Amino acid sequence: MSQPLFSALFDETERRPLTVTELTNSVRTSLESRFASVWVEGEISNFKAHSSGHWYFTLKDQNAQLRAKCFRSANTRIRFRPTDGLHVRARGKLTVYAPRGEYEMIVEALDPVGAGALRIAFEQLRDRLQAEGLFAKELKRPLPVFPRRVGIVTSPTGAAIRDILNVISRRTRTVHVLFSPARVQGDFAGPDIARAIRLINQYHERALREGREKDLVDVLIVGRGGGSTEDLWAFNQEEVARAIRKSTIPVISAVGHETDFTIADFVADHRAPTPSAAAEIVAAREDQICQALDHLGRQLLRLTRYRIVEARSRVQEHALSRVFDEVKARLRDARVETNSRVHELHTLMNLSLQRARTRTNATTQMISPARLEMHAATLRSRLAAASDGCAAAMEMQLQESRERLGLSAASLDALSPLGVLHRGYAIAQSSSGKLLRDSKDVSTGDKVSVRLAKGSLTTRVEQITE
Fold first, then answer.
1. How many domains does the chain have?
2. Which of 463, 152, 372 is nearest to 281 (CA)?
């Protein structure tokens, strides 16, 4: 009201009431123009992260409170997650939420008071991933003893790649390098590092499916050189941590200097204090083995020389010992004994040979042609006499056999029933073929077969006389 109160009572314009919406819009316009950018410090309470990605919370102190919201487009740039009780400094603008008639603050930036935002974000992500088990020791995979191919994820223009290649080329001749460049600093460095890790894993898995053993990646180095906390922040992002944990290849985290620790260091299978130290780890075993083999070779050479000198000394010592004189004497006695035994052997061999010759001569005389002819004639005479005697004996025995056979045939003929039949007798048989010896064996009317000397008769019994 620009006019005095009394005059305003009669002014139609001043007397027209405002609607709630008009008044609210007027208040919102005034607030937004007056407080377009303001910093407010207070304690967070009633924090809620909506499924849409927006944050809703209240800023309060001992005497007042202010509702606040932070849209998803703004909170993605905030490097920590607000929690109840956290004292913060918020920057944004004031506005009015018309449906409720409440004024609120649209937060565009948020910083913790008394602690750095990066440190809080680091601790929050570390605790959350640790609670999920991503840092568990049982998930840590051992590094290969002799890696043949090493994957590297880092900046193509940084000092880290030069240091790694310099160490590997100096300390080994068998390790090959597969490089996947990525940004390691800035807002989009985290997703780029995760993409490079996944790219090398896809290459490894494809080589594994196709059976290309020589193209497999044995170990993966992820890192960069030193810098401030902001410079190293890409390795504290959740996306990078989960990409490292999902990697099928063992990962060495090599970020910053020895005193720098990142989330990548906790989730990786092995931590190296610097990129150069990571290169020394993958090439150390080959270098150590070469040094060990060289050392063992020198030790073996010294030991062999010592053994030769020691053996030579023992030979010289034994050569001067009386034991060799005894050995010579024993050898001399053995030689004499051997000569004596050889002489006796020759004598026995000559004697045996002489006896064999004597037996051979006697045998030769016994089997001379004249003696053999005389002996053969004698054998022929004896054979002829034996043959004649054998023929006579066989003839005599044959005659005796014929006589015995005739006598046996006559006896058999005399005893044969057929002979009896020729003398007028007959053989009676019943119809079943049974010989009849008694008249009781048949009845009147039975058929009886009568065999004669020539032929047979079939008769019927007419009368039985006992």
1. 3
2. 152
Question: Does residue 160 contact residue 225 with C-beta atoms inside 8 Å?
Answer: yes
Identify the domain boundary among 81, 115, 149. Answer: 115
Q: What is the pLDDT of residues 261-285, one digit of tens each?
A: 888 889 999 999 899 888 888 887 6
- The region that residue 106 occupies, defined by phi over 0 for left and psi between -120 and 50 for alpha, beta otherwise, is beta
Q: What is the pTM of this model?
A: 0.48
Contacts (Cβ under 8 Å, ≥6 apart) of 116: 229
pLDDT digits (tens, 9 = 90+) for 356-389: 888 887 777 777 677 777 778 888 888 888 888 8
317 falls within a domain: no
Question: Final residue of a domain: which of 263, 289, 315?
Answer: 289
Rounded CA separation 215/201 (Å): 12
C-alpha distances (whole Å) from 259 to each of 63, 271, 339, 408 are 44, 12, 92, 140
Give exposure, 430-440, as e/b (b: 16+ Cβ within 10 Å): eeeeeebeeee
**Which range of residues forms the domain containing residue 22?**
14-115
- Residue 1 is predicted with a pLDDT of 43
